[in-house]
């Protein structure tokens, strides 16, 4: 509460000082101030937060790494020679070589692609399922809502790791594309519930608004109201939840790959490299520490970014 | 209250059959050769094939055959007969040896979460906005954001191998000292959540009317906090910790695997690695039941503890 009051007080001061912030223009007190939208307010709030900038830079960096890994290292991650086993840093390999004699740093850089791909695609698929279920449940209410909400309850009650183990053990194929697709599918099927609840509650709020009633009186059908009037309002909170979910999907993918049931070699994944590095950590720790640091920073960046945006968009927390 | 418990029980029975059906359908039935799927990549001898066909009634076909085998599996599960792993050991025996270790580990983790999480949460809630509050918020964000597969091996390397503060791995029949580091790693996640929950709920309750009344009656601040605020603030924390006990029993796969602790999660970890289908299904089935029961107990506990909550 006190936070809210300080913000409100400083905004009043800003208003008194006039739009350009210059003192000494006393006649401007009564002049109407240009109203700021919620997005504008949130952006003002975000700009001042160092955590937002740090996590945004990290997210952009890792995205660039996934898109063009060649920018960050000129070494080939699959160029491995046992003669270089646990060799000291040399040339472009700034963190030395791992047990198989591969460049530790190059492998960590190339590992970003699988992680981000799985994270982003499962977040998109999650978003699609969540929007569909949340919109239907929130807009129509009644028995549709009752049935869909029970489905959400049941799926929410399934432990993610155990269910993923059972589902992924079922995948017989070793092809890289199939495995990536399977991991994405499993994460989305088990992970859409939280976002669906968020969408449902924002749809219920939007449904009662005057502009929806106005659109209905003008003769708009259910489909048009949902698509043009309710969806834009349900989208913002869903995107915030999905940013945080993206971080946890990346962590989940790494965990599954670590266990040996997610992605498999020759796909380069941080989870696989962490597991390999763990086995040989007594000889050399860098092959364990480097992919661990990459994974932890990426997951943290997405979670902190989502957290910062959510705080900025939630007026109650100000 | 009675109606709520009955309804909740019915829901659990439904969830139990739903989940076991899914587990069973995915592991044993469906397309392809179930015996080969069970054995993974390894070759199956004719004797093994004949044995498994007879054991799981694989000669019955169609939907009827599927449900026949499913109810076979369910009735075995309910009788506590989990069958044998591919190596021939009884899964019931494996689990009986593993449970005490896992429970010990879960208790250490919960103790860590309660002692540090709740204490720091109360302090942060009372001094909201202070340096201590902001530092704990940032620290818990870090803990919540770092996956266990990073935390566990790094803790093992730095604290166990490099600086040798703790024993790096636990052997068979581990003692308290060997389980301390894994317990802390396992409990750190619950610690962070418990801290945040306590902080929010203490900060909220400090503004409640009954606290103002207690203060204006002249009660010392210490008594207001320790008796009035704390008792009401701990309701969500207790229920959260209840859910966590269920989670920790099933969620210790990574920690137990990394630290070589012969608990339930470790056996599951090994079952996945060695492609031991029956072992994985047996353990997953039991863990799902544990998880469901823990959730049921917590829901009922919630309704008992907090009279404001009504499930109708």
From TrEMBL, chain A:
Residue ranges crossing the lipid bilayer per the database entry: 51-72, 116-140, 147-168, 180-199, 234-261, 288-309
Domain ABC transmembrane type-1: residue ranges: 112-306
Pfam family, one: OppC_N
Signal peptide: none
Membrane topology: Multi-pass membrane protein
Superkingdom to which the source organism belongs: Bacteria
Keyword Cell membrane belongs to the record: yes
Gene Ontology CC: plasma membrane
One GO-annotated biological process of the protein: transmembrane transport
Name the UniProt record assigns to this protein: Peptide/nickel transport system permease protein/oligopeptide transport system permease protein
Lineage of the organism: Bacteria, Bacillati, Actinomycetota, Actinomycetes, Micromonosporales
From TrEMBL, chain B:
Alphabetical list of InterPro entries matching this protein: MetI-like (IPR000515), MetI-like_sf (IPR035906)
One GO BP annotation of this record: transmembrane transport
Keywords, comma-separated and alphabetical: Cell membrane, Membrane, Transmembrane, Transmembrane helix, Transport
Domain of life of the native organism: Bacteria
Membrane topology: Multi-pass membrane protein
CDD domains: TM_PBP2
Segments traversing the membrane: 12-30, 105-126, 138-159, 179-197, 233-259, 279-305
Pfam families on file: BPD_transp_1 (PF00528)
Subcellular location: Cell membrane
GO cellular component: plasma membrane
Domain ABC transmembrane type-1 residues, every copy: 99-302
Family: Belongs to the binding-protein-dependent transport system permease family.
Name of the featured protein: Peptide/nickel transport system permease protein/oligopeptide transport system permease protein
Organism of provenance: Micromonospora phaseoli
């Amino acid at each position: 509460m006190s936070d809210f009051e300080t913000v409100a007080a400083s905004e009043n001061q800003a208003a008194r000082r006039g739009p350009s912030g210059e003192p000494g223009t006393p006649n401007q007190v009564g002049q109407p101030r240009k109203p700021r939208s919620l997005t504008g307010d949130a952006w003002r709030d975000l700009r001042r937060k160092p955590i937002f900038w740090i996590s945004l830079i990290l997210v952009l960096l890792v995205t660039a790494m996934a898109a063009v890994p060649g920018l960050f290292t000129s070494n080939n991650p699959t160029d491995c020679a046992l003669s270089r086993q646990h060799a000291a840093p040399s040339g472009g390999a700034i963190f030395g070589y791992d047990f198989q004699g591969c460049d530790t740093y190059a492998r960590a850089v190339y590992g970003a692609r699988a992680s981000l791909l799985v994270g982003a695609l499962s977040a998109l698929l999650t978003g699609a399922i969540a929007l569909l279920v949340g919109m239907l449940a929130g807009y129509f209410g009644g028995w549709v809502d009752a049935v869909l909400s029970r489905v959400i309850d049941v799926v929410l009650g399934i432990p993610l790791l155990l269910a993923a183990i059972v589902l992924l053990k079922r995948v017989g194929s070793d092809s890289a594309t199939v495995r990536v697709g399977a991991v994405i599918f499993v994460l989305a099927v088990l992970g859409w519930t939280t976002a669906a609840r968020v969408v449902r509650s924002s749809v219920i709020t939007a449904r009662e608004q005057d502009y929806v009633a106005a659109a209905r009186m003008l003769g708009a059908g259910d489909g048009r109201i949902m698509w043009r009037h309710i969806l834009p309002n349900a989208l913002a909170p869903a995107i915030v939840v999905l940013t945080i979910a993206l971080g946890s999907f990346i962590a989940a993918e790494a965990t599954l790959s670590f266990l040996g049931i997610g992605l498999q070699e020759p796909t380069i994944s941080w989870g696989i490299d962490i597991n390999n590095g763990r086995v040989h950590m007594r000889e050399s720790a860098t092959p364990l520490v480097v992919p661990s640091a990459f994974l932890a920073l990426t997951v943290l960046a997405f979670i902190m970014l989502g957290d910062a945006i959510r705080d900025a968009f939630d007026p109650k927390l100000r | 209250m009675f109606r709520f418990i009955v309804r909740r029980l019915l829901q659990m029975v439904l969830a139990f059959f739903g989940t076991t059906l899914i587990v069973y359908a995915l592991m044993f039935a469906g397309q392809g050769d179930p015996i080969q799927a069970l054995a993974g990549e390894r070759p199956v001898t004719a004797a093994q094939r004949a044995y498994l066909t007879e054991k799981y009634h694989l000669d019955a076909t169609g939907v009827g055959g599927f449900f026949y085998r499913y109810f076979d599996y369910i009735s075995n599960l309910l009788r506590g007969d989990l069958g044998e792993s591919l190596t021939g050991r009884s899964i019931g025996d494996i689990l009986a040896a593993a449970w005490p270790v896992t429970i010990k580990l879960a208790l250490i983790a919960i103790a860590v979460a309660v002692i540090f999480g709740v204490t720091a949460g109360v302090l942060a809630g009372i001094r909201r906005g202070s340096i201590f509050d902001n530092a704990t918020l940032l620290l818990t964000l870090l803990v919540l954001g770092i996956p266990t597969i990073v935390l566990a091996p790094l803790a093992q390397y730095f604290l166990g191998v490099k600086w040798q503060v703790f024993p790096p791995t636990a052997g068979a029949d581990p003692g308290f000292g060997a389980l301390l580091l894994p317990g802390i790693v396992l409990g750190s996640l619950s610690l962070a959540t418990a801290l945040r929950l306590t902080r929010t709920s203490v900060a909220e309750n400090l503004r409640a009317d009954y606290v103002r009344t207690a203060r204006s009656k002249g009660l010392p601040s210490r008594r207001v906090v320790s008796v009035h605020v704390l008792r009401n603030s701990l309701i969500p924390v207790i229920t959260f910790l209840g859910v966590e006990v269920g989670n920790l029993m099933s969620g210790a796969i990574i920690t137990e695997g990394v630290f070589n602790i012969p608990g339930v999660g470790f056996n599951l970890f090994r079952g996945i690695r060695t492609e031991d289908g029956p072992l994985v299904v047996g353990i997953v089935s039991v863990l799902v039941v544990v998880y469901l029961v823990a959730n049921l107990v917590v829901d009922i506990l919630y309704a008992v503890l907090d009279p404001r909550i009504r499930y109708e």
